[in-house]
Fold:
Amino acid sequence: MANKILAELTTLQSGRLYEVGILRHHCPPAIHGLRFRHASLVVLILLVATVSLATGCGRTNAAPAVPSPEVEVAKVVQKDVPIVSEWVATLDGYVNAQIQAQVAGYVVAQKYKEGSLVRKGQILFQIDPRPFQALLDQANAQLAQAQAQLGKTEMDVGRDTPLARERAIAQSQLDNDIQANRAAKAAVKAAEAQVEEARLNLDFTAVKSLVDGIAGIAQVQIGNLVNPTTVLTSVSQMDPIKVYFSISEQEYLHFAEKINAQTQKEIPSGGPSFDLILADGSTYPHKGIGLLTNRQVDTATGTIQLVCSFPNPHNILRPGQFGRLRAAAEVRHGALLVPQKAVSELQGAYQLAVVGSDSKVSIRPVTVGERVGEDWIIESRVKPGELVIVGGLQRVQGGSTVKIKQTESAKGE
Structure:
């Protein structure tokens, strides 16, 4: 219909223009201008009416209202939660004993299997004992001579004492006998010390382990000449085993009171237990306890070193391993928790989409704290029980109305 009206208007306009052309040639200029304006006005009115009519005829139904987006929400939960911290850790033996020779000589035997468990006092290496046996025999002979000389001086004193009392001999002779006896006694003690030294040196030719632990690879071979500065091997006591980790100076100041209270105890107790995450991602089955804190902060890194110990009955843990330590260092009382997926980040700022009782969305900037499992501690601008959007965030904006699709509870509620 609109097309038909436009066609008629076009024909009418063409006729008007034709009349205008005739009038230009036969009518005065005033009449010409008056009629032209009249014709244009009529055409303009008809065009406006036509467009309005066409628009009205083309509009059949009004556009439908946009439905409110559906979103998933979760409640803000308030409860006490442990704050779990994690640190990089290195393992080392509880005792690492370097086994060195105490006498010089040739190694004639290796008495242990490398990498095996050895016991305290077990012989690891044998140094040629013959020179030391000869020195012991010589010391025993010198002791026998000293003892014989002591016996003679004792007899002299016993014989000359009554004679000097009866003035049968000079008193000076008895005095000499007494001094000789004292010198002989001292010589015997010196000879006994030499015998003991020779016996110790002979015993030192059998190099023994000083602790129970795992013996390392031998650093010498049979036939090597060793001396007291030579390291033969190492033995590490690994049950329990030490685990070293470092915390920042800020962390230390936060926990200083608790840390120092533990280090004053002979056997630390009452502190947090530690979990050890191994290199393959598995968690070591035994719990660790805090043992000690180093005396100073490392000026190069700004950290202080702490040590804890873990039971190691099957020697699974070895010195030099790396892992991660986890511990619940403190408990946050009355913490406000929301699922981590409810928190959005933009250029370092965090915000939550909160649904009010009127189903309208409020975008709130918030301050976040530590992460606890799948939740996040919120420090400000939320209250317990409020609903935060966890699904459909991309479809909402501040002030818009939403429809709650599903209500989830924060984990642990």
Observations:
- The first strand starts at residue 70 and ends at 75.
- The first helix runs from residue 2 to 26.
- Confidence is low (pLDDT under 50) at residues 12-58, 408-413.
- The CA atoms of residues 355 and 361 lie 5 Å apart.
